[in-house]
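Q: I'm teaching a short session on how sequence maps to structure, and I want students to see two examples side by side rather than one. Could you give me a first protein with its sequence written out and its structure tokens following it? Keep the formatting plain so it prints cleanly on a handout.
A: Of course. Example one:
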Amino acid sequence: MRSVDERPPLDPEDLPDGVLVADAAGQVYIANQMAARLLGVARSELIGAHLTDAMALDDRRGNEWCDCVRPYDGFNLRTTLTEQEWHTVDGRALLVTARLCRDKPAGAVQQVAVGLRDARVRARLEREHSELVATVAHELRSPLTGVKGFTATLLSRWDRFTDSQRRLMLQTVDSDADRLSRLIGELLDVARIDLGRLQVRAEPADLEALVRRVLDNIAAGTSRQVRLSSEQPLPTVWVDVDRLTQVITNLVENALRHGGGTADVLLRGMDGGVQLIVDDDGPGVPVELRTRVFTRFWTSGGKGGTGLGLYIVAGVVDAHRGRINISDAPSGGARVEVWLPRNEPEVLAG
């Protein structure tokens, strides 16, 4: 193993961000291609230029970067310039930070190292965050409105209603509370998936029995038909039963919601594991949209829902080291294919 001293020096071209380094006189002597691309000039024009000319950025009010931050003659205890947004001549936004290297504390600046990054990445993340907050607020407000409305009505006009009317209102409140609980659970699952902390507690499971139990529960609440077929023999797989129940329920309910009234479920052994196939009779999913189906808050066709279900499904399947994809069903609808490995613990497999 190489010692630290034997390792090759870092090449600025290997860095993902733009980098400029200027000496004590302000002359740029290091500039990578990313910095040149972000600043919109040739790299040869940056090398040897004064930092004031190389960093031709302003704050959209005519204030230039060097005049504002004064890297060489500003506050003499500074060693870092915090990241701020600045703009090129053609209006592109860049995130700029800098390190001021001094010969001693409060001493003269010997070197200025500038980091540049395209601000569009942060803008996109901020936009996605705003969309997430708006969607969550909307989904929470709808059942909360029902809860608040019915409870306020009951509290103010209790004596004006019959027992059956009160019961109906309380049942509606209970239903809305269940909806809130499910939504909060989904949001927690999304957070766990995003952080890579979704845990699965694997145990041996009979997938055919598990699927039949899920379908029986769904059939109890809908008149639509779900057909199950199984190709024997099916290997025993180690799964988190609760999480897989969540996957099967979501896929079948989604097929019934978007399909033409029926859904078909097939189980078969494949590649040492088990493949679960759910077909519907709906219009299907266009090829160009199939990767987007498993993103957060993706909805289609005005069928309602939070748009979190398939994102969670994909996260659970991934946590089981499985695969999921969408193709065309024989009927022309959508086919969702989930493959799960056996996941048998090594201590038992050996």
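Q: Perfect. Now a second example for contrast.
A: Example two:
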Amino acid sequence: MDKFFDTIGGLPLHPLTVHAASVLIPLSALALLILVFVPRWRKAYFPLTIGALAVSVGLSFAAKQSGEALAARVGNPVSHQELGDILFPASIGLFFLGLAFFLLTRTEKPKWTVQLAGGLASAAVVGVVVLSVLVGHSGAEATWADRISSNQADELPTEPDPNASAGNGITAEEVMLHSTVTDCWSVVNGNVYDLTSYVSTHKGGAGVIEAICGKDGTKAFSGQHNGEAKPQTDLSALLVGPFGAAAGNPGLSPTATLTSEEVLKHSTGQDCWSVINGEVYDLTSYVSEHPGGADLINAICGKDGSAAFSGEHSGQQKPENILAAFALGPLAGTSTLPEAQVQYEEEDDD
């Protein structure tokens, strides 16, 4: 059923259904509340209100199903989904309370039964309206909060890092020399990328890329693409080399050194570093995106994954490109990490 609610015209159906539901559900609920307190309007508007409540149930179901389909593609905003799951049965309850109140007003039942039904319907209206607002707010927050709060770009540190050795990556001064749309370098997650050829083709517009030229674009990139594998892959094709200041990488403290002991601290699926062929990679955002399953990445967290990676992907360019997007830098010293033991199925393939 999720496929039916997945896309329309190549675009996700969820924004359409959720906006329709977020408008009609509170409007029909408020119309019911008005009819509870304004009896003279009931004859003219009650059937229309009951019809709107029925349509609201269908829209809340469509929003729920399309939301699950979208979550399967881009990830699950937990709070928004939990509230959306509550809204569907809540809209059903409101419909039946409204229908019961409507039928009671058409009978000769004692006045107190009509008043009781009206009171219950009013309470349900308040609950559903509040829930609708919370669902809408949580959805907007999941979509926009990180993008609005994150700065477009941070200025690069100009003071030299006393812990950096000579030749340890591309300097901030060098990156700042490439600060125009015709010559655009930017730092993202501790690596320097030449975005010049990408400016005119960026789907979000050239202005978004121009804003991070010659600067640290880590926050801007993460706010827009956090956890998405494809943008990371696209970015890896534009790699120039590692940035020479740890401040450009939010995964490193200014004095952090990429030793085996440091890698061991990042050994879970929520904080996953691994060493592959002498380079350290932060694979945290890729765990859930890995085509072969999260378990295969979890197995190399905090370990030396060189043999596991080479055994599965030796000589393949695409996995190499994907991996490059998560590079932190070379491992300091000789690896003392345990070697990851990974059992790949034959059909697993990046």
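Q: What should students look for in example two?
A: Point them to this: The longest strand covers residues 183-188. Also worth mentioning: Residues 161-167, 246-255 have pLDDT under 50 and may be disordered.
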